[in-house]
Amino acid sequence: MSLQNPPVNSLSLEFLTDICISVEKLEMDKTCRGLIITSSLPKVFSAGLDIMEMYGKSPERCGEFWRAVQEMWLKLYGSNMVTIAAINGSSPAGGCLMSMTCDYRIMADNPRYSIGLNETQLGIVAPFWFKDTMTNTVGHRTTELSLQLGQMYNPAEALKIGLVDQLVPEDQVSHYSHTNHDQVTTPDRSKSMMRKPTIDKLTSKREADIQNFVSFITKDSIQKSIGMYLEMLKKRKR
Amino acid sequence: MSLQNPPVNSLSLEFLTDICISVEKLEMDKTCRGLIITSSLPKVFSAGLDIMEMYGKSPERCGEFWRAVQEMWLKLYGSNMVTIAAINGSSPAGGCLMSMTCDYRIMADNPRYSIGLNETQLGIVAPFWFKDTMTNTVGHRTTELSLQLGQMYNPAEALKIGLVDQLVPEDQVSHYSHTNHDQVTTPDRSKSMMRKPTIDKLTSKREADIQNFVSFITKDSIQKSIGMYLEMLKKRKR
Amino acid sequence: MSLQNPPVNSLSLEFLTDICISVEKLEMDKTCRGLIITSSLPKVFSAGLDIMEMYGKSPERCGEFWRAVQEMWLKLYGSNMVTIAAINGSSPAGGCLMSMTCDYRIMADNPRYSIGLNETQLGIVAPFWFKDTMTNTVGHRTTELSLQLGQMYNPAEALKIGLVDQLVPEDQVSHYSHTNHDQVTTPDRSKSMMRKPTIDKLTSKREADIQNFVSFITKDSIQKSIGMYLEMLKKRKR
């Protein structure tokens, strides 16, 4: 699955829906041995959630968007396939979350790329299931520090804390992903055993989590900060 | 306690029962200051559960066997003694589990030896309490990857991920085990505080866990694969 | 907040009460951007709980003391401020606990200093919330081993296991603490999300935890060992 939503693979409602449909199809295809997620775009794996989905939208639409974010996570973190993230570019916020749902993470060893849950930098608190996914990946302490600072890691740092599993030269990310994938020959239930409690937690709190998101994101103060942030981005481009 | 069940210290029903009785006796002996578990056989600590106990046996017998495996784990992981694993040989599957029940693991620094929960390689899923014991030892992420791949680690790798605590020259495993043991002078309740939730979980789900094992292992398809595996072993020996 | 209770910043009932009042004031002061905890005394951050509060006191007084220890932990671990421990001296037992409540730990790189939960060495079992705080900081396995041995770590060892986050030259602990503090510009709710389950656990078991402490510490055998320990300290001083 090669992500292609120019310019930066932002996760819009439409793109998330496409991803979910693709994953579901592969999941049901018995000839499919697994899934490698990568990006078709240069320099970026995914820039994360599409900020335009959170600006000036109705509460209903915001809720629909958040449900799609949850669905993407539920499908990927709970996948029965062997999943590998071939991280061939930067991967902040939702891009990092998507990487962490995979069984194994291979990142291009380019110091210009970075990865991390940097929501805090934007004045947003990562939801509990983002936090749980990161805790399962790098442990309690690193997650606490990382979320508090909204820290982004370069590839070497990400490898050191265990946020990615392997660094390879940029032009060999795809090669190594396939090699690694081929090593896992059998489907395995230990993955679902490890992840079930984390998945069950969101499943049981799903509606409340949507309510939380909608009431937060539709606040006047938050809409105003997003507006200012978008203005700043526009100016930077000029 | 020096394991001696040639040729490879397989954990049969009889051998497990012997181990449990020995541990129970030591536990009640107030002059006993602790327990060092090692192997009397060359090159192997324990090859794990005896596959012959899972082949062509009645459901009743399979259930009895599994109860003994649980009992061994409950007795060792919940021991009030200071326990040290002196791992002087390879230690796959159930052998690795037994090592992980101890308070401290010293392994012979011989790159030919390996240790790990490699059940997946045999088409078996490690039960939840194997998984919990490993998570308590090396953390969530390493356990997930390790179980999915059924990975075996050489001594250096095992030290790096924290699956063992210390590597020593092969002829000094016993010496270092005693030295380390002598450093712990007082019995301590912090161990039981750390392990209680994990132990309580199996205690409360014990019968269901036996049912799971019996219904899985007595399946025709599983019996057939075990049969083929045994054939292969026979051929290899010739 | 600079701890000053000579000679070694022992946490007496009175000193704990002072600390709690100071923290509460800062918490309500909206101009306060955060809290750096350090020691005004040479060579010691805090020697931990004042042993004189546990010797020859009435059960009521012991209960009052323990409630103050809990309150200090609840206030600091649950603080809405950005908190940094500037550990400019040794920090055993309760001193280590206080450090671990902070968001970030900077320690003087002086090999004579040490830090750790060494209660076991004194024949005391660390209560569950000491254990939980350490598990959140350094993980399950390191906590288990550390509590069982009552291990103290020099700065290099403490950095390696993640008990402290940064080592700096002794005369620059204060400088680096302020520099680090300034990097965290926004208050953040991810901290309370990470710590809430641990805090809720003590809150819900607070009275039982006090009862446990009082009935343990007022035992004749424990009072006798404390008496002998104090005699030994006196002789050492002469």
Describe the protein.
- With 238 residues, the first copy, chain A, is of the alpha/beta class.
- The first copy, chain A, has one domain: 2-enoyl-CoA Hydratase, Chain A, domain 1 (Alpha-Beta Complex).
- Chain A contains ten helices and nine strands.
- Chain A has helices at residues 13-28, 59-77, 93-100, 128-138, 140-149, 155-161, 173-183, 190-204, 206-217, 220-237, and strands at 2-3, 10-11, 34-39, 48-49, 82-87, 91-92, 104-108, 115-116, 166-168.
- In chain A, the strands form three sheets. Chain A has a five-stranded parallel sheet, sandwiched between helices. A two-stranded parallel ribbon of chain A has the order 2-4.
- Chain A is globular and about 50 Å long.
- The model of chain A has no long low-confidence stretch (mean pLDDT 93).
- Chains A and B meet through helix 4 and helix 8 of A and helix 5 of B.
**CATH top level class name of chain A:** Alpha Beta
Proportion of residues in extended strands of chain A? 5-15%
Number of helices of chain A: 10
- As for the number of domains of chain A, it is 1
Order of helices and strands of chain A: EEHEEHEEHEEHHHEHHHH
Structural category of chain A: alpha/beta
Biggest interface: A-B, 20 and 15 residues
**Low-pLDDT regions of chain A:** none
Helix content of chain A: 40-55%
Biased composition (Polar residues) (chains A, B, C): 176-187
Protein name (chains A, B, C): Enoyl-CoA delta isomerase 1, mitochondrial
Pathway (chains A, B, C): Lipid metabolism; fatty acid beta-oxidation
Organism (chains A, B, C): Sphaeramia orbicularis
